[in-house]
Amino acid sequence: MSETPVSSPAVEFTAAQAVAAGTDFADLKVSAAGLFWNEFRPADGACRIWHWQHQQARCLTPDGFSVRSRVYEYGGGSFCLGGDGILFVNEKDQQVYTQGLAATPPRALTNHANCRYGDLQWHAGLVLAVEEQHGERVEHRLVALAERSRQVLAEGADFYASPTMSADGQRLAWIEWDRPAQPWTVTRLMCRRRDNSGQWGPAQSVAGADESLQQPRFDAQGRLYCLSDRNGFWQPWGEVAGRWQALPAEPADHAAAPWQLGASTWLALGQQDYLASWFEDGFGQLGLRSAAGLERFASAYTRFRSLAMDDQHLYAIAASPISPPAVISISRSNHQVSVLAGGAEVLAATDISLPQPIHYGSDGHQAHGFFYPAARSQGATPLVVFIHGGPTSACYPVLDPRVQYWTQRGFAVADLNYRGSSGYGRDYRQALHLRWGESDVADACAAVEYLAARGLIDRNKAFIRGGSAGGYTTLCALAFHDVFRAGASLYGVSDPLALGRATHKFEGDYLDWLIGDPQQDAERYRQRTPLLHAGQIRVPVIFFQGELDAVVVPEQTRSMLAALQASGVDAEGHFYAGERHGFRKAGNLAHALEEEWKFYCRVLRA
Q: Is the pTM of this model over 0.85?
């Protein structure tokens, strides 16, 4: 008898529709000229700047341009407002361009073919940026760019982020760190001052011991603030009464791990006042803290990014369990929320599977995640376990069309924040130190047992999928545990040592932290390399890979696929020309989603 789950969805929701609903936004900016944001649409895979003014939005980016930085490969901070227009990084050549607001063509500001730029900030005619130079080795520095000029502001450290200038131009602050640290383990907050002659003085460290710092801010009076996890969570600290100290804050992370540049999850307003987003039980909150207390906003939303504000409104990129990412404005006087872009209905609210937070035991520890019941569920159902990438990243309780694609087809989904994920404090984030391929895998397997014990899923019909680092967890779970019926690896790591040899500078030492030293801990690597244990995988596996991937190179996926096929495992692979690490083209995204579903259905029929 066929074991195929509900093959016809509760409502007609195709892979193409799920992908089309994947419009996203970044880098929200506000000025007297209006509101600006970077918008990605899967239909063409391009990122474009939009300008909102007088209750209308118009696209500023002409055909042939896409606004996306590739500094550290993951980019971020791809544009800023300056003068009478915008300045942005063009995806194709990674150069900075300037463009007026009157539909004028973009004009190149830089012409350094071996350089990339990101984390753009504007101050008094200068563009502050992180510069990534590719030569015999990759070097990073902070620079100030102007017409026909380039000034180096800081160099010598391995990595830089978040250049920011005080309003009077007398202080420059930034974040820096050195290998082998990652930006979520140990960083430094640095600052330079101008002397009376206008020259910059030496750089001084304001903070940075055994802590991770991010998102430095100056208030209008020139006082410096930053998020620090010194007390266990990323919380606001700053110069208060002449001392560097913690500001009153909720005991929670006020930011996610800084994989990308240009994050804005908090804004310093002066003294101890600030606007911020933070996580409570995995759910995002938004509030304005002042001497009068904490004023909360937009409680219907569960994730907030790219905060901005003016005298009348707060602005954010926000999402909720029933609405995809949207650009919203919030009245500071009456808290009324208006959707300016995005947030279009994907499914009727009654058809959406809502996230249920789960907390469960795993190897004597607690793990977290969100459970989405299958549509029209009647008892135990098949389960798809989602493993996010990073692995120091997170999943959020917001509408994900991919999740709904599965629940509409009779699968339940467990979206996991396994140990090592961000959003639950420094200790939880650090719990993956030297334990990658063990703790994360244990949490994935324990989630199946937890849900099955409660009669929510059928433990014999559990699948696991993940992209990048999530693909590694997937392959480890299939190789070393007999829990899952099949799995899907999307540009996933199958050979950590090969990844270490081929990966980029930003993650060049990450594996040492996650697993250990490749020479001293060679046996540990051998034990946790799925490619070396392909013979232990007995269940079907499907692979999806971009041919231009510089993080997990295609050869790694081909080797794993060939090893499985050689041992007689039902394994198939799909390789996409023109795709990098993480697919962006709508046709490829839809194809991958539908092929994965068909693959699982075939496994259930076997």
A: yes
